[in-house]
Amino acid sequence: xxxxxxxxxxxxxxxxxxxxxxxxxKLRETYLQLAxxxxxxxxxxxxxxxSTQERTFDTVREIKQETGxxxxxxxxxxxxxxxxxxxILNNYKAxxxxxxxxxxxxxxxxxxxxxxxxxxxxxxxxxxAETGDHFxxxxxxxxxxxxxxxxxxADLLNFKRKVxxxxxxxxxxxFYNPDAYFGFVESCEKLGxxxxxxxxxxxxxxxxxxxxxxxxxxxxxxxxxRKRLEAFGDDAKSIRAFGLDITAKLCSDLLAAGAPGLxxxxxxxxxxxxxxxxxxxxxxxxxxxxKQ
Length: 292
Description:
By secondary structure, the protein is of the alpha/beta class. It has helices spanning 2-5, 21-34, 50-67, 82-94, 120-131, 152-165, 178-190, 207-217, 223-231, 236-257, 271-280, and strands spanning 10-15, 41-44, 71-76, 99-103, 136-141, 169-174, 197-201, 261-265.
């Protein structure tokens, strides 16, 4: 963890674009509640489909205009073309967006060919070739390894390629076993990789939803946590209380060990993130690690 201790702590949040007027109102309420915490940036997820992309653009503009928070749009390349990615980059440059989360993404439904990009490192290389150092580029990291990776070593080497392509920082998939993160950072250090690797944090509020997400993305819910959550049955209040205790303890342990901040997957809800933020006594100054 020595490589992580020298970086200033950066606390950030993630939103996804709304799909209806009702969910748009909910998102606005959420980011206005979280804005006073002064996160250093807010990321906004991105889909491969055209309508999803437009919702991302609209959400990025809205959050930036309403709160002044640095916004880091996700940009996924699978199924896309260089011309399309170039247009998106120029769009963001015109809006003075200087922070991106560069991802491979999932293959759009019904599409068989990957397009002109196969992997995230190719996207990072393209962004650097097109825009130089204009963007501060975040990439994804998987402490428990990507579910499609053939091996742990292959996944580490894939991460190394993203870093060498020009990534500035990384955000991890969420996890609940801190040793997975510590082990991942140690493996990166052995490969000579030196960049902030910020833990992704998913507050536990809904066990059924969490189990479904975790099965899909390869994030392990430790057996003892699963059993405790299952024992609560439909007692949503108890699930939430236990989940917040577990997540806050995880965050505290990570920060104490030298993690360079936390990135909260809010699921467009303010309450859980605010509760954990306040329990930890986080005082974010709102300064982004990205380009100013």
